[in-house]
Each structure stands twice: as structure tokens, then as C-alpha cells.
Design brief:
With about 60 residues, the chain is of the alpha+beta class. The protein has 1 helix and 2 strands. It has one helix at about 45-55; strands at about 15, 25. The chain has a two-stranded antiparallel sheet with strand order 1-2. Strand 1 (about 15) and strand 2 form a beta hairpin. The mean pLDDT is about 90. This is DUF2256 domain-containing protein. It comes from Glycocaulis alkaliphilus. It holds the Pfam family DUF2256.
Length: about 60
Amino acid sequence: MAQVGPMRRKGDLPEKICAACRRPFTWRKKWERVWDEVRYCSKRCSGEAKKARQKTAP
């Protein structure tokens, strides 16, 4: 089986800060193609942010 790319250590993966909970989270393989668009660390944080926006909307 051929190796797809260079191996990376977990500590070398890119990080972002979650827009909802303000905690750092690291890159995941499933976010490979959309990493620039990822804002939340989990579905829970995404849902909480969506609820908060709906409450403040007129």
C-alpha cells in the first residue's frame, strides 16, 4: 500500500480557535478539503451558535 503523503505528528497539525466555545481544536482528516471554512470544533458548538443567532434575530 502506497503512502499518500508525509507523516505528521499530532503536535504539528494546524490549530484554530472555536468560534463558539473559544477552545483550540486541531485539523482532522475529514476537514481536509474545507479547513479554511471550518469555524466550530464540533456539531454541538455549531448547533449552539445557530441557536444563539436565531434568538437574536428579529
